[in-house]
Predict the 3D structure of the following.
Amino acid sequence: MPTVDQLVRADAVHRDIYRDPAVFELEMTRIFKRTWVYLAHESEVAEPGDYVTRTVGREPVVLVRGEDGVLRAVVNRCRHRAALVCEHETGNAKSFRCQYHGWTYRNDGRLIGVPHPERQSADVRERLGLAVVPRVESYRGLVFGSFNPAVSGLAEHLGPAALGYIDRFLDHCAGLPLTAHRQAHRITMPANWKLQLENGLDGYHAGFTHRSFFDVMRRRTGASVRFASGLPTATARAFRNGHTAIDPETTSRKPLIQRVSTLPGAAAKLDALRAHVGPQRFDEYAGAITGAGINVGIFPNLQLIGIHLRRIEPVSVDRTIVSVRPLLAVDAPPELNWLRLRYHELFYGPAGFGQPDDFEMFDRVAAGLADSEDGWLRFERGHGAETETEDGETIVGNVTDEIPQRGQYRQWRALLAGETA
Ligand code: FES
Ligand code: FE
């Protein structure tokens, strides 16, 4: 196993971080078992008994709201002989019954039923409840868990700059609260999880990887497209602890609304929306259709992009599940959510015009990792030309600078070296 310094430099990473199973093992313990990991949006587990199954690193957990209303994450592993106690992705249950020998656990983890208890020691129920993930905290509906009891508080870990961007993202919908769609696109990609980590905050690639999308939009709208990468005011940002953002910093939503209006059936829905909210507020609502217009990355496994929450779930060194879950506005005119979903689908999901192109690039990178003289992948764009905000919370540069990736790998390095949590 190479040392951390042989794997990562300030402006480059070695190809082995994407393909060495030993590095993956280390990531699962030193990153995913030590820091905060995003689990779900609170609206997915709104009622007592609501649960979703997740993994933290490779450990299966159930995030469940107890009958007392408290959100807990319990380890999805029977204390008898290790079978999963909950095999569904989502549901509502007061208890979980292991199908192997029938042990039953309350949804707060307590062991409440052991068949034929006369053959067990008297204290089996007290001793063998489900393990509980020691820390669960949420920020504005985003629920995180950590196996590290000593990890700093979630808000402290996110820091003021990332919190500001999360707020901006969550406030993008005309002042309406957001709820998570019950369904998500779940895409299994045959590539290392960090390719998605980097790509979701990559302000450099859109005009190339997504060229066909912009060509289609140009044909449909008749308007030429200005990529964020061509805007001198658009920024890339790195915050504390590997959190990041790209920010086009443009106030004009016009080109995006033009794209929305080319969707089949959208013209009538836009008219209905205008009638619903009135002409004064129409622009504000129309602007909410396409999302906040910023990409926010919360290291290691959450990205807030468009109208969706993207969860990155490493499975093995060359296998990752990417889940893309749209957010809908609560108590909104029905046309608003219809338009949000149709615009979201235009780019994201397996049938979108955009996201599959990123996966194609991941395949090409994976193919290019083969042994050669040059083992390095470079993130040196704009290196040395960054500035720091006065409060010291943000490193900032042009949107095409690889500032987010350098920030992500600073945190990756620090966690792998055991210097932070
Ligand atoms: Fe769960 Fe035996 S493994 S009851
Ligand atoms: Fe992309």
Summary: Residues 78, 80-81, 83, 98, 100-103 surround FE2/S2 (inorganic) cluster (ligand 1) (CB under 6 Å).
